[in-house]
Amino acid sequence: MSSKPSIPKGTRDFSPIEMARRNYIFDTIKKVYKRYGFQQIETPAMENLNTLIGTGGDESDQLIFKILNSGDYLSKADEKALADKNSNGLTRSIAEKALRYDLTVPFARYVVQNQNDITFPFRRYQIQPVWRADRPQKGRYREFYQCDADIIGSNSLLNEVDLIKIIDDVFTELFRGKLDYTVSINNRKILQGIIESVGEQDKFEQIVVAIDKYDKIGSDGVIKELYNLGFDEKSGEKLLQLLGVKEASDSFKKLSFEETFKIITLQLEFFEKSIADTINGQKGIEELEFVFEKLKSLGIRTANIKFDPTLARGLGYYTGTIIEVKVDNFPSICGGGRYDDLTGKFGLKDVSGVGISFGADRIYDVLLDNNLYPEFK
After folding, report:
1. What is the pLDDT of residues 261-304, one digit of tens each?
2. How many CB atoms lie within 10 A of CB 60?
3. How far, CA to CA in Å, does 226 sit from each of 207, 210, 213, 258, 295?
4. Measured distance CA(105)–CA(327) in Å, rounded
5. Statement: 182-326 belongs to CATH 3.90.1230.10
6. Cα–Cα distance, 197 to 188 (Å, whole number)
7. CATH superfamily of 19-48+101-178+359-377
8. What is the pTM of this model?
């Protein structure tokens, strides 16, 4: 008797009506990208494993789906690693390729390989699936589509402003004024300044991972993780005091446009005093002041914009402004930020980029749950 067919956990089939809805999302995002001068590229579903490993941090490395070498892969397996049950050592000898976990790292590889054919700054968009060995749950899948836009080869902070304006344009069209959303903004240099101010810069990546869980585990959970990293009580309390601005900012959701930017100015002034003696912190504050001033002058009013000092973005390649978009009761539906020298891993040094990525699958669920799709004939 044949077994009932199934698909892997964290993946989905899509019916004709579901494809109509998905294409509505893709077409809306593409239309906005083209309006801002972005050109489309595509890259292979699989990359060489050494292209992906070590680019997004230890946690990202754990989420990579490896592809076994063709043929009798065990014949070339590292016997010592196999005997020692050393999974990392064994993987290197039996898997040379992997499925991409995002579109940014393959894009950096593409830029380096095609640098002589690209005019910088290069604006590209890319809409393709990615794969992560994550635990499936609502809004979190193992196969999902990302809709990326990146500007590479320019240090100008006006690029960050452009990308936030794109976010505003896309969700203004998709939500049609019927659903509130929040654009949270921070800068990794400010996080560096905070961590330097408590004398724990050698644990930066581990601390950022803990801070990034703030929305899930709260201040008590973060402080517990910090103590597990060896923080003393004084350093832990100082860090949370600096991050306490987050709790205050959460109560400002329904402020007017003008009041929102007054609050952001006060928050940045607080940090300017708190981490004034750190070079990274000061630079991060200056960058955010520029971005917020430009956003204020543009008059973006559909989004709830806020400064969130606990926003960290889990991927390790971010170095400057970071952005995340959320609606109530859903994980992030869009995110991104500035990355300096990601191309350096592939031999092209000192090329800065910045990008955003819309999570099409999460946006699909948000629109469906809030009955925001137009009628498809």
Report:
1. 888 888 888 888 888 788 889 999 999 999 999 999 988 767 78
2. 20
3. 7, 7, 12, 36, 34
4. 27
5. no
6. 14
7. Bira Bifunctional Protein; Domain 2 (3.30.930.10)
8. 0.89
